[in-house]
Design brief:
Blueprint: H1 14-21, E1 28-30, E2 43-48, E3 52-57, E4 62-66, E5 81-87, E6 91-96, E7 100-105, E8 110-114, E9 129-135, E10 141-146, E11 150-155, E12 159-164, E13 172-188, E14 194-199, E15 204-208, E16 223-227, E17 235-240, E18 244-249, E19 254-258, E20 265-271, E21 277-282, E22 287-291, E23 296-299, E24 305-309, E25 312-317, E26 325-330, E27 335-340, E28 354-360
Antiparallel strand pairs: 1-9, 2-3, 3-4, 4-5, 6-7, 7-8, 8-9, 10-11, 11-12, 12-13, 13-14, 14-15, 15-16, 17-18, 18-19, 19-20, 21-22, 22-23, 23-24, 25-26, 26-27, 27-28
Length: 362
Amino acid sequence: MTPAPRTPTRWYRVARWLAAAALVVPAVAALTAAPAAALPAGWAQVSAGDAHTCAVGQDKTLWCWGENNRGQLGVGTQVDSAVPVKVPGSWRSVSAGWRHTCAVSNAGNRYCWGYNGASNLGLGDQVDRLTPQRVLGEPTWSSVSVGNALGCGVRTDGRGYCWGQGAPGGPAALPALAGPQAWRSLSAQSDNDHVCGVTTAGVRFCWGVNAQGQLGLGDTVSRSAPTRVIGEGSWASVAAGGYHTCGIRSTGVLQCWGEEPAFGTLRPVTVSPLVTWASVSSGQGGYCAISAASNLYCAAAHGQLALTAAQMASVDLATSGEGDHVCAVSIAARLYCWGANDSGQLGLGFAGGRVLVPTLVS
């Protein structure tokens, strides 16, 4: 059973939470429902949530499927769907979290929908939404990343902002500035409330819960503000997972740290050093990475990478609660999913069971 959002840990300040909840709710705009349509000929990006999945087509359409008990599919209902359903609008990217979703429209606007009991949507309140909604007048965004009770994103000016329990210093109902850095990307973990990011200069910063060393700072002390390791070297990207984090160095080296899936290290350690890596995605209990040759590998027992499928362009793992499925886009723009399917989160037309190999979503 999917757990409820975690109780805030001691480094969160109750006073900040109350102050954030007392903010004046900004004007919010919603999109209207869209009619049924055919799936896109090719896919550009996919994001696996706890028990739902969303993907953006090459034609800028957005589709979601799976669990929908809090409106996380964004289509105005609370009915699960084992097949992709179209979300209205024109879209650039999407991030599926616990029981909510956020996305960046083609115009650069941040929309969020679904569960909002912990200000997960960053709309200034704690009211669930069944359709995509945005804060009117909010500056444009380059990317967003959402987790369980937190979310972060990078605006087009390079500034990073977080909301919910991921905001530096404590929870916030609206996006709060994540330090003075100019960010390349931010990755928000779903269930265990930590965030890591890479600046435009290639410097890695992490903050949040650190009981298992998931911040990779050499200790198990939680941080309420972005913190770096001086002299660590340059990074291309990072991906926050359950009790661990993985990242790609600027040299193409893959490194991971924290507890899962058996690293047990407080600082980054190299994984599969003979392979040059292009990207990595961390999940609740594992990780997958794509090599420079477009081969997809996923973590098996003891944190070792095993070849899963070939010729993939991007991959995303479910990262919250009991989330246990994976989706990937091939270099031919085909979409594949596998793993748990209890709510139809694989988009294969049925719910239940477990799919053990990458299967085409068609």
